[in-house]
Amino acid sequence: MNNTIETMLNHRSIRQYTDQPIEKEQLDTIIQAGLAASSSSMLQVVSIVRVTDKNKRKLLAEYAGNQVYVEKATEFLVFCIDYQRHAAINPEVQADFTELTLIGAVDSGIMAQNCLLAAESMGLGGVYIGGLRNKIEQVDELLELPQNTSVLFGMCLGYPAQDPEVKPRLPAHVIMHENQYQPLNIDDIKDYDQVVHDYYASRSNNQKQSNWSEQVTGQLSKESRPHVLPYLNKKGLTKR
Fold it and tell me: What is the fold, at CATH topology level, of the domain defined by 3-164+225-234?
């Protein structure tokens, strides 16, 4: 196993950071690693907003559901779908197809993961902030995003001031199918539920009595940010 794979397998979400700054050269390298990511048809439809303004950070923390680490992290990056530069090249660009929104979301995820992996390889840690979509229009306004451009998620970065355990994932044989989709073996989920239950009960911080099935069914049995679709439509995205 090489160092890259070890870094990937040891990923944890880091929400507490030391006061040690991230050097400019480090941040530049992190962004260059992101830019090196795959891009569908070389469209390059991602923009990153680095937020250094303290007042904006505080507001973003509130918008994300009072996640204080958004304000406290050494660096905070917001990843956006961006077709505005393409429209600036040619006003005939049709950015309102759902397929193009999917491309923007996929490319942003790939770029962000490159950035986070690069950061973790330097001894940094981070966490994704999907909570920005709780108040997506307010975030958009705060960052002054133009038409054809939309908020996706944020990323905190910094030197870790905590050492959480690695969260167990579903086993590979549940995720990996060969040639065709395979029916779910519910016993595999029961086994995984026990693993997750034991993880939550034994971890050093924020212990709780829960398993994966309870967690995901609770999440998926309620509305999931229904305001996002009209927001995307308003920004000229996902109309057809």
Answer: NADH Oxidase (3.40.109)
Residue showing tokens 């993961």: 113
Contact 149, 80 (CB under 8 A): yes
Q: Per-domain residue ranges for the chain?
A: 3-164+225-234
- Of the CA atoms within 13 Å of residue 18, those in its CB half-sphere come to 11
Structural contact between residues 97 and 240, judged by C-beta atoms closer than 8 angstroms: yes
What pTM does this model have? 0.96
Nearest to 237 by CA among 112, 140, 168, 128: 140
Task: Work out the widest C-alpha separation in the chain, in whole angstroms.
Answer: 57
* Dist. CA 177–CA 189, nearest whole Å: 16
Burial class (CB in 10 A: 0-12, 13-18, 19+), 146: middle
The Cα 58–Cα 137 span in angstroms is 16
Cβ atoms of 114 and 34 closer than 8 Å: yes
Give tens-digit pLDDT for 18-47: 999 999 999 999 999 999 999 999 999 999
Q: How far apart are CA 206 and CA 94, in angstroms?
A: 47
Taking the CA atoms of 85, 34, 99 and 240 in sequence, report the sign of the dihedral they define: negative
Q: Per DSSP, what are the bridge partners of residue 156?
A: 76, 127
* pLDDT tens profile 51-107: 999 999 999 999 999 999 999 999 999 999 999 999 999 999 999 999 999 999 999
Q: From start to end of 20-98, where are the E strands? A: 46-50, 75-82
* Residues 107 and 39 sit within 8 Å (Cβ to Cβ): yes
Report how far residue 155's alpha carbon sits from residue 50's, in angstroms, rounded to the nearest whole number. 10
Measure the CA–CA gap between 187 and 210, rounded to whole angstroms: 17
